[in-house]
Amino acid sequence: MTDTVRTPARSRVLIAALGLVALTVAVLQTAVVPVLGVIAEQLPASPVAVSWAVTANLLAAVASTPLLGRLADLYNKKRILVVVLGVVLAGSLLAATTSTLPLLIVARVMQGVSYALYPICVAILREELPEDRVGGALAMLSGALGFGGGMGLVATGLLMHGSAGYHRVFWLTTIFTALVMIVAMAIIPSRPANGEGTVDWLGATGLAAGLSGLLLAITQGGVWGWAAPPTIAVAVLGVVILVAWWWWERRLEHPLVSIEMLTRRAVLLTNLATIFVGTGLYFGFLGMTQFVQMDRATAGYGFSASVLYASLVFLLPGAIAGVVTATLSGRFIDRFGARPVLVTGALTGVVGFLALAVAHDRTWQVIVAGVCVNAYISLAYGALPALVVSEVAGRETGVATGVNAIARTVGSSIAAAVVAVLLSHVSSRTGLPPEHSFVVIFVAGAVTAALALALIAMSRSTKRTATTTVDSLAMNHEWG
Where found in the cell (predicted)? Predict the structure, then answer.
C-alpha cells in the first residue's frame, strides 16, 4: 500500500470510481428484466425462449465469478477488472446491434461476467485502503449496488416509453460500460501481483458445472416441470459434481476455494444468510414491480402503473433511501459493528415486508414499505461482505467475496422461481394472479429476512482478530 491512497481525498476518488464499477453490476442486472416482454414481441420469440436471456446471464455469473475472484487474488487486480469490463462492453455492443435471439443470449452470457466486478472491487479496496476505511468503503459499494438497481429500472422506464425498441436498453449499457472502463483505467492504481499459489482450473470447471446444474434446475424448473426428468437430472448432476468438487479441493495445497475457509462457522453462516438476503431482494423487486402494474379495474388490486410510473413513483424513493442508508451504514458499522447493523437492517426488512403484506391499497403505503425493504437490502449488502472480509486473509478476499456474491445470486434465482410459480396461477375470472399470491410473496420476504437475522446472530466469530477487524472497524474512521 502506498501513501497516496492513505489521503482522504485520494481515498474518496478511488471509492467513487469503484462505486461506479459496482453501479455497472446493478444496472446490467435490473435494466433487462422489464423489457423481456418487449424482446419477445420484437424479435419475435416465445417468452420461454426469451427467458434464456436471463438464465444464461445467471449461469455465466455463477460459472465465472469464483474463478475471476481467484484470478484477482493472484494477479494484477486492475488488469483483471479492465478485462472483465472489456468483455461486458463487447457483450453490450453485441446485444445492442443484433436482432436474433441466439446472439442476444450469447451477449447476455458475456454480460454475466459483470457479477465478478463487485468482489474484484472489494479486493482492490482491501489492497489500497487502510484497514480502518474498508468497512465504510464497502458500505458505499453496497449503496451503489442498491442505487444502480433502482436507476436501472428508472432508465429503462424512460427509454421504453411508448413503442421504443429494446435495443435502446443495450445501447445504454454499452455507453455506460465504456465510460466506466475509461474511469477505471484512469483512476484505479495498478499494483504488481502479490498472490501465492496457482489457479485450480479443474476445480474452477467443477464448481462452475455444479453450480450451473443447480441454478439451471431452479430457473427452468417452472418451465420443464419441477418433477420432470430434466429438472431432476440436472439438479442431481449438479449435486454430484459439487460433492466431487468438494473432495477434490480438500486434497489441494492451493485450491480454488479453501474448504477450511468455507466451513469456518462465521463464513458459512454469513453465506447462508446472504442466500436469504438475495431472496429478499427479488421478493421485493419482482413482487412490488408486478404488484403495482396490476390493472386495478380488472384484478381489484394494484395501481395500473406503467413501467415508467412504477419506476419513478414506487421504486425510485426506495432506491434513493437505499443509497442514503448504505452511505450512513459505513459510519454505523464503524461505531457499532457489522453484526448489529445487519440485525437492525433485517428487522427493518421484516417490518417492511409485513407492512406490504397487510397494507398495500394506497400509494404511500407501498412507498413507505418499499423504503424499509430497500434500507434492509442496502444495510445487508454493506455488512455481509464486511463480515466475510473480516474472516479471511487478504490473499483470499476476491474468491471469498466472489462466493458470497454467488450466494446472493442463488438466493435471487430461488426467489425469482418462487415468484414465477406463485404468479403463474391466475384467476379464471380475471386472467390475473389473485391478490393472495402477492401476499404470500411479501410474507416470504419477511420470513427470509428473519432467517437472515437468526443466522447472523449465530455467526459470532471464534477468531479474535475477526471481531476487531470489521465489527469494530477502527472507531477513529475519518472521511476527511
Answer: Cell membrane
